[in-house]
Amino acid sequence: MSTLTARLSSRRTRTGSVDKVVLVFGTVCGFLILMAVFGPLLAPHPPSQTDILATSQGPSGQHLLGTDSLGRDILSRLLAGARLSFLGPGIIVVVSATAGTALAIAAAWHGGWLDRGLNRVLNVMFAVPGILVAVLAAAVFGAGFWAPVLALSLVYIPYVARVVRSAAVRERRMPYVEACELAGLSAWRICTRHILRNVFPIVMAQATIGFGSALMDFGATSFLGLGVQPPSAEWGLMVSDGRSELLDGALQQSLSAGALIVLTVVSFNIVGERLSSRIGASG
Amino acid sequence: MLQSQRFVRGRRRCAAAAAGVSLLLVAACSGGSSNDDKTVDVSKDLASTMSPAKGDIDQLTWNLTAGEPDTLDPRNAATYGGGQVTSNLCDPLVRVDADYKLTPNLVSFKQVTPTKLVYTLVADATFWDGKPVTAEDIAFSLNRAKAPDSIVSFIYANVKSIEATGDKEVTVTFTKPDELFNNEMSTIAGLVVEKAYTEKNAKTFGTSAGGLMCSGPFKLDSWKTGDSITMSRNDNYWNDTYKAHAASVKFTFVTDSTALTQALNAGEIDGAYEVSPDAITSLKSNGRNAVVFGPSTQSLKLDVANPGGVTADRTFMQGLQKIVDRKALAKVIYKGAATPLYSAITPTTWPNDQRATYQKAYDVLEKERAFDAKGAKKLIEQSDYDGQKLVVAIPAGNSVLSKTAQLLQQQAKQAGVTIKILSLQPLVYSQAGYDATKRKGIDFLLGTSFNGVQDPLEPAGFVYLPKAFYNYTDLDDPAVTDALNTARETFDGDKRAELFIKAQTTFEQASATVPLLSTNTVTVLNKKYTGAVTSFAYWAMPQMAPIGAAK
Fold this sequence. Notes:
By secondary structure, chain A is mostly helical. Chain A is 76% helix and 0% strand. Chain B is globular and about 70 Å long.
């Protein structure tokens, strides 16, 4: 037990300094999350309200980012769209992180055929492009919010499981685990109370990185018309809706939705990578 | 490794900064514009042809906007791309011109009795392999098109027999008189293939592997699946009127309207039909291409997808007809390249001689179905509709249909009707057109359709006869069936118009369709070239042949 305390104490010391990059992009992430939570309440206009007398308008006092080809307020759709744009990847990350972590710890603890079997399965799953599975799911279960979310949740499990398994195998060999076993603690208790606690920062870092990728993939299914359905607002769908307007020089819809996607993906990736590097350095 | 990581992270920071900055600049930099400068005045712009070509050209690259054909076997080439390509390769018995005027082609025809039609081979035509086109080939081709596995077999519904009755004579005998048949011989239903080649390559005929053997103004060179179809000029073509100007034509399959617009504006693709309304403004302002609007038998409709349910309630459907602001739809989504449509059968299919008769009946429908939000709401309230969501299916990725559906959704909402838009994968959407199992759970299919000939009996026969291919609502009304069948047996245009209108009055009351717009053919052609047919008649014509140099 004293080894564990010493490691955690050492990790705290080394990670104690303020990382300005994490601070900046963490703030951006926080702002975007707040936008997802409160955005629909802040939207100045009903996001699906069409106005055929004011289509493809440029920015004005009434519509700060202009209107789309059906006369809907783009700013309102961006704000309202943040919720679905974040909810989908959020569910994907929670489900894949939970399942991936459980599988990884089980494999690391049990070893042998379970570990080998899981590795084989993960290798096969890595070979399948996520977006393809999402499109297949939409074909089988129908286009909408849930089909790509469930498919991508499955696809993202290996990304978490592989990283967490490595960490869990390392923890499994630690003397404190042996000490716990000698003390008569059950495998369930050791895994959930000790190993999980020690690999949790890695899970969080991986989930943060995964969130950005999941947002891209989820947005891509909406862009293809197989994810979130119109007239709901979602950033990927907005990029797609605005594509045809680009030809007319009305850039605002695709560009603003695309910019928010880029900002979100980059911010979450940087924060996730920084966390991951620091955990690696301290581990 | 470290350097590359730094580079990646550096790039990401730049991207993040760029994203933030661009979000702020978007509002300032992007141009919104008023609706007025994006619409076209169709009444001024409609044309059936461009000015004639002045010389030959080496190569023409043309895009099939609806995508790659599934087959080039004439009897099943019923898609936009399939029909367009095969019409360049194979000769029909008779031909329509750009104004849908019927003229002899391979054959002259004589209606000997109401149930006997005799075709006489008049053209000195040869297939690409040099063998002459014979009466035997014609009889073979027509019998092949008559077979049940042919999409156009319904055209042959009244045909008793087709026989080569002489060296240059083919006799078609009918079980009952059939006015529609000869008109349809100008379409894929009447294209002639070589008997010997077709029998020898029976399994692969019309595919990329098997090709085909015809006598048209172009020869099929290659079909690279997923990439292109290339054809070259048939220098031995018998008909000087349709001798091709282009030595070679390459068909591409770009379906994305943005990519197609960029390719047309850059000059990588020389022309295309049925270009999306989204692209009209950009194409016109670019200046490289001529953009021409032509009359068309195409229409945009909301078809009831299944029998029964609330869509079988006539009061509800009457309300739904009034919900739609068709003029706004034409202006906002189609940017003026379409006109409001109030009947299931578009006016562009009316025969020219009886237009006044058809117009009178149409005016009644137009009055009944004119946009009236309050009237629609009242009718909906009186109907059996109790707030359930109605599912409207569209093909995924089609921005024009998606926007149309969203506009309908908003207008329906104002009348208290809830619409759910369902995007189907394009293949599934296409299958839903002919497979009832794929339409399960769907209330309406939103899409466009077209007719091959200028005859309202063709689309009506597809939709309103019992067990017809597109009779989704299982309509089986003896009054409609009798009137349509009798009309098809009637050679007198005036009497046929009366019978058709009698049927129309009944089947329009059943409201299996909410007609939305009559859409025009949009033709785009690089200004280096001219001569293109710009009406929808191109679909049944060797439309690549007249295109040549503008100077």
